[in-house]
Amino acid sequence: MAAGSRKARHDLSTFKDSLTGSCLCGSITVTINDTELFTKPRGHLCHCANCRKVSGSVVSANLIMDEEKVDIKDRDGTLKSYEDKATNSGNPVYRYFCSVDGNPVMSKVDMLPGKAIIKMGMMPVIPTPEMESFAAHKHSWFNKPDNVLSYKILRTGELMDD
Ligand SMILES: [Zn+2]
Predict the structure, then answer these.
(1) CATH architecture of the domain with residue range 17-150
(2) pLDDT digits over 118-147, tens only?
(3) For residue 76, how far is its CA from the centre of ligand 1 (angstroms)?
(4) How far is the CA of 135 from the centre of ligand 1 (A)?
């Protein structure tokens, strides 16, 4: 059986207590311990240019979590961080990634002490987002999911009119 033909859909009840994902080479494993990941919309899509760069895609799927609920294992010591100073606010974003395969893992910002911004692309399933940020910068062909709040720029800032 080809790898691509493996079962693609996951039974969400498997993740009722926690959700675990790993980077491409398997060195870094991230577990989020939370019982409400799939009981309501969670997390957010970020359309900022920097998040797009590190996601390698049209949008980044992020989830802000209390650090105490996040368990990161760095088996081979490959977790590195990049201090991203090219931000709108000038406040650095510390972007963590696997230095072997380049997999984005999480971000941290001084404005959110005690929080980890998990890059959800490494997870087997991504919860339905509740909001998107930097919507003013999103691609015209990108259709957000229903009932997602659209902030023009920063999360909790001004909303889009549409
Ligand atoms: Zn890796």
Answers:
(1) Beta Complex (2.170)
(2) 999 999 999 999 999 999 999 989 988 888
(3) 9
(4) 30
Closest to 45 in 3D by CA, of 146, 130, 158 = 130
Q: In what order do the strands lie in the sheet with 28-33?
A: 18-22, 28-33, 70-74
Termini Cα distance of the chain = 46
Across 82-94, average pLDDT? 89
Going from the Cα of 23 to the center of ligand 1, the distance in angstroms, rounded, reads 5
pLDDT in tens, 5-41: 566 688 888 898 999 999 999 999 999 999 999 999 9
Mean pLDDT of 76-92: 92
Cα 55 to ligand 1 centroid, rounded to whole Å: 15
Q: Where are the domains of the chain?
A: 17-150
Distance 158 CA to ligand 1 centre (A): 37
Q: Report how far ligand 1's centroid is from the alpha carbon of 103 (Å).
A: 6
One-letter identity of residue 47: H
Q: How far is the CA of 159 from the centre of ligand 1 (A)?
A: 37
Give the burial class of 42: count Cβ atoms within 10 A of its Cβ; 0-12 exposed, 13-18 middle, 19 or more buried: buried
